[in-house]
Design goal:
Layout lengths: L1 E6 L5 H14 L4 E6 L7 H4 L6 H7 L9 H4 L1 E2 L5 E4 L12 H12 L8 E6 L17 E6 L3 H19 L5 E7 L6 H10 L3 E4 L4 H9 L3 H6 L5 H15 L12 H7 L4
Parallel strand pairs: 1-5, 1-6, 2-4, 2-5, 6-7, 7-8
Antiparallel strand pairs: 3-4
Helix pairs in contact: 1-10
The protein binds adenosine-5'-diphosphate and magnesium ion.
């Protein structure tokens, strides 16, 4: 099963994807997480370090794909989760999905995609990025991470629009749901998910432990083992992992028009 996780920059996509990856692995599944962001830090909390990116590796091997071994780009981190970082083009140039496409091509050539029960793509989802829709062409399900803020929900809606568009172009990708993150309240999130007729999969609060886990290079599950009081949060990730492993049908979201987005929350 291939799952693409989207959301506005800084909303907590990588934090969410990494904790989901570990939660799914703890259910006994083989998991690969692919970070698709020039920031290349998607898998930092799992690997405990910045790993070399596919862009760097392709460069090192002079684009001789046949010389590249799985061990050059796939690293095993906490909980037995395997991780890959695509990297990105130099600042100022767009990739148009090229880097993600090359990564998938490489993994398919190595015949490693079939080793995994679940592959998670953590995708830069800012509305300005032209290449961000590419993983939707490979995914069975998409999740979108959003806080309870208008701008995060606006980006989430754009991603829903992309899922609708991909279905019209013949791709079979469905929305598994919206994940609330950095949420002290959920009023706007609930209004939005009701309106787009898409499940709210889970809600993670704004927590100091999560901010710190990022800096220290640990997922919440590792912190839990170290005795930190994060059980409520790991329980939420376990719940979401089980939901995804139940292979939900998912939905084609009832995406909101851009103008309507500005009207939707006025009554709140
Ligand atoms: P993205 O991948 O969407 O750019 P990150 O997952 O890197 O976002 O998160 C951005 C920053 O916000 C990180 O420093 C992370 O630790 C912090 N963060 C994410 N989720 C939470 C949360 N629920 N509570 C507190 N801090 C959070
Ligand atoms: Mg990220």
């Amino acid at each position: 099963m291939i799952i693409a996780v989207y959301g506005k920059g800084g909303v907590g996509k990588s934090t969410t994807t990494s904790n989901l990856a570990v939660a799914i692995a703890k259910e006994g599944k083989r998991v690969l997480q692919i970070g698709c962001d020039p920031k290349s830090d998607s898998t930092f909390t799992i690997a405990g370090k910045m790993i070399p990116t596919v862009v760097e590796i392709l460069d090192k091997f002079n684009y001789h794909y046949e010389s590249i071994e799985p061990g050059d780009l796939i690293f095993t981190g906490y909980g037995g989760v395997d991780v890959v970082e695509t990297g990105g083009p130099p600042a100022g140039s767009g990739c148009g999905g090229y880097v993600v496409g090359e990564t998938v091509k490489l993994l398919e050539k190595m015949d490693v995609m079939t080793r995994y029960d679940v592959i998670l793509f953590d995708v830069l989802g800012d509305v300005v990025c032209g290449g961000f829709a590419t993983p939707l062409q490979y995914a069975d399900l998409a999740c979108v991470v959003s806080s309870n803020d208008f701008d995060a929900l606006f980006a989430a809606n754009r991603i829903c629009e992309s899922v609708v568009e991909k279905n019209m172009s013949g791709y079979d990708v469905k929305m598994a749901g919206v994940i609330g993150n950095r949420c002290d309240q959920v009023d706007l999130l609930e209004t939005f998910t009701r309106r787009i007729e898409t499940p709210l999969m889970g809600v993670v609060p704004r927590k100091e432990e999560i901010r710190q886990s990022r800096v220290k290079g640990y997922t919440l599950f590792e912190l839990e083992e170290m005795g930190e009081p994060v059980q409520d949060m790991t329980a939420e990730f376990r719940k979401m992992a089980r939901y995804l492993l139940s292979k939900p049908d998912g939905v084609i979201p009832n995406a909101v028009g851009t103008r309507e987005m500005f009207e939707l929350f006025k009554g709140e």
